[in-house]
């Protein structure tokens, strides 16, 4: 394969003010941010990626500039046809910079977005969807579930998600002592073919999490996600896995191939949830997905952001060949809804046949929300 150099990089940051803030157990989102990244090679082929930007509150603009001003000079001239090599190279070259400023997360997130854009570029060059570049036998339809539903407003949230075609719902918990009772009420209202999941967003100590699990034991709960801190240690996670029949889920706040390998080998999680925009991009997350499936566990990509990252997550799940489902946030978000995200029908999403992620350009409707735009090229 002939060497084709990366010749141009753009980053775009956006913010959408929220009328109704999105609450989690650890904080409140008062706007919806997103950072989209476009990479072009010397032949004019391009690809899009997304960089995690939900936290901290000022993170979007920081990551957009980090990718453009600190990492792009290391990327320009790299072989656009070798995304795995570029991913490893950028991780190596930025290690000391990240160590110097104590910001490994932002560097990893920016590199994840770059990796996704390079895979999109390569799928576009081949004229096929990303999932088929990764796996020629990839599925065209994937299961999905509605996410981002506050358990304190669950009746309205689930009703709206049902109307949008969902048959599985994830409730946010970790707010107060009434969480368990509200979960029990919602579980009683589930339809025959519906499923209920829970996400505590690392809210509790091991003891608090065990108490919560004991109070909902017997409820038809598909999983409890991040009941304790992601870095609490294998012993605490194993203790929780052993005190309840409700499976545990996590992985969005895990980074690094070796850490995922250890997590998978420990088998403390039944559902493993790497985030394509937080670490690994397509290169890292697809490798994790295959390891998860080979271990007999379930790969369920985590995602809560804009439309490009959601499309990439959908393509990854379809390519994985596993039985997992895709997280689809049901809170209003123009930075997601302006993109060609397929509709949900009876709990599933049928993916399109366009090249790459099927994104040609950023929709004009996003222009009022733009807070930053920058670009660099080999000639600049």
TrEMBL record:
It holds the Pfam family MR_MLE_C. SMART domains: MR_MLE. GO terms for biological process: amino acid catabolic process; carbohydrate catabolic process. Keywords: Magnesium, Metal-binding. Its cofactor is Mg(2+). The keyword Electron transport does not apply. Residues 151-247 form the Mandelate racemase/muconate lactonizing enzyme C-terminal domain. CDD domains: MR_like. This is Mandelate racemase/muconate lactonizing enzyme family protein. It comes from Microbaculum marinisediminis.
């Amino acid at each position: 394969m002939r060497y084709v150099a990366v010749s141009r990089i753009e980053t775009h940051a956006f913010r959408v003010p929220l009328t109704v803030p999105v609450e989690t157990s650890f904080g409140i989102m008062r706007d919806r941010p997103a950072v989209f990244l476009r990479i072009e090679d010397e032949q004019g082929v391009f690809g899009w990626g997304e960089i995690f930007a939900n936290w901290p509150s000022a993170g979007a603009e920081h990551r957009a500039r980090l990718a453009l001003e600190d990492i792009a000079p290391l990327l320009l001239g790299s072989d656009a046809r070798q995304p795995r090599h570029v991913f490893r190279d950028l991780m190596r070259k930025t290690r000391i910079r990240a160590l110097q400023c104590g910001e490994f997360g932002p560097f990893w997130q920016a590199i994840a977005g770059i990796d996704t854009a390079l895979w999109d570029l390569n799928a576009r060059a081949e004229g096929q969807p990303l999932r088929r570049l990764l796996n020629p036998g990839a599925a065209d339809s994937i299961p999905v579930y509605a996410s981002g539903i506050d358990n304190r407003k669950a009746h309205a949230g689930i009703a709206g998600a049902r109307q949008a075609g969902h048959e599985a719902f994830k409730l946010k918990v970790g707010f107060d002592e009434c969480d368990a009772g509200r979960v029990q009420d919602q579980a009683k209202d589930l339809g025959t073919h519906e499923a209920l999941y829970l996400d505590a967003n690392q809210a509790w100590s091991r003891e608090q999490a065990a108490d919560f699990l004991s109070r909902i034991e017997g409820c038809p709960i598909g999983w409890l996600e991040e009941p304790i801190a992601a870095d609490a240690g294998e012993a605490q996670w194993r203790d929780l896995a052993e005190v309840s029949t409700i499976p545990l889920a996590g992985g969005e706040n895990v980074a690094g191939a070796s850490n995922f390998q250890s997590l998978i080998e420990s088998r403390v999680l039944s559902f493993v949830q790497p985030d394509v925009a937080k670490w690994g991009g397509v290169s890292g997350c697809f490798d994790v997905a295959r390891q998860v499936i080979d271990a007999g566990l379930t790969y369920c990509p985590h995602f809560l952001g804009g439309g490009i990252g959601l499309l990439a997550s959908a393509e990854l799940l379809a390519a994985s060949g596993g039985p997992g489902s895709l997280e689809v946030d049901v809170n209003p978000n123009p930075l997601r809804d302006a993109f060609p995200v397929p509709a949900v029908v009876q709990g599933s999403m049928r993916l399109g046949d366009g090249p790459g992620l099927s994104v040609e350009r950023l929709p004009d409707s996003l222009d009022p929300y733009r807070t930053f735009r920058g670009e660099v090229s080999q000639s600049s």
